[in-house]
Amino acid sequence: MILEAIISTLISSLSYLGVFVASALISLSIIFPLPWYPIVLASVFFNLNPILTSIMFSAGSMLGEVLCYKIGSGGSKLISQKFKNWKKSKKMIKLVKYVKYHFKRHGFLTIFITSLIIFPFDIVSLVAGAYRYDIKKYMIAGFLGKFFKILIVIVLTTQGIHYLGYLM
Length: 168
Known about the structure:
Number of helices: 9
Number of strands: 0
Distance between the termini: 27 Å
Mean pLDDT: 86
Helix content: over 70%
Strand content: under 5%
Shape: elongated
Low-confidence stretches: none
Structural class: mainly alpha
Radius of gyration: 17 Å
């Protein structure tokens, strides 16, 4: 509830810059996911342009994701110290192995797809950093995936609201 109020205030007072700041702050959380949908709902509520909103969201989000990339590039020693509880989770170990497997074969495509779908992107960022994947390619692939994801969600949300309006 507090997060939604902060996001709404940022977007109502700063418009597109608020979208950028809110998405950067949300993306700074590592492993513990914070919801990004309040940004989408607020942008729809304030009638912001879907394309500009998607651009600002994606840019801010990828700026925040650089932290995970840098932690990953710090080496496995830093990661293992930071995330000791991963060893307790079989699902997390499977997920990291899955990401590594696909990342080795198709780095750009893995980054793009995992940023496009609902997926814990922090893991991909850590793996990309650990493999010292080119940060420019990482940023471009992540930006494009997040751009299309947010654009699709905004358009579907707007259409859903209009459809519900016709039903009432």
